[in-house]
Amino acid sequence: QVQLVESGGGLVQPGGSLRLSCAASGSYFSIDAMGWYRQAPGKQRELVAAFTSDGSTNYADSVKGRFTISRNNAKNTVHLQMNSLRPEDTAVYYCNAAILRGSGWSGYWGQGTQVTVSS
After folding, report:
1. Rounded to whole angstroms, how far apart are CA atoms 31 and 105?
2. What is the pLDDT of residue 12?
3. What average pLDDT score do residues 80-100 get?
4. What are phi and psi of 88, to 5 degrees?
5. Which tens digit of pLDDT belongs to each residue from 21-31?
6. What's the CA gap between 7 and 104, in Å, rounded?
7. How distant, in Å, are the alpha carbons of 7, 22, 75, 94 from that of 116?
8. Residue environment code for 33-53, b if the CB has 16+ CB neighbours within 10 A, otherwise e
9. CA 8-50-66 angle, 5° bins
10. Starting at the edge strand that comes first in sequence, how are the strands of the sheet with 67-72 ordered?
11. CA quadruple 4, 7, 10, 16: dihedral positive or negative?
């Protein structure tokens, strides 16, 4: 069993900051790409920021310069520092990772953490 557990969401005023964390637990051999996605009400899930297989990072245009993704490979964690938050950043944020188990590589999702930006 593999789990991705997110933490750090909450309510913040516009212009504020939050830091999201995601930790992988369970039995697996390796983790490859890791990243963050979000889904706002009535909208499709979209990429926010992610590490690719070669270690480079991708960011959605809407968060460039405001959000920073980081990763601790030793602890199998990924973080998302979100600054200058805007109401349009309100969404459920999901952690995603490609994880190698005995059955091969599979994509896993966390349960999601709510981020609400409102005054």
Report:
1. 9
2. 98
3. 97
4. -70, -5
5. 999 999 888 88
6. 27
7. 14, 18, 28, 14
8. bbbbbbeeeeeeeeebbbbee
9. 65
10. 2-7, 18-26, 77-82, 67-72
11. negative
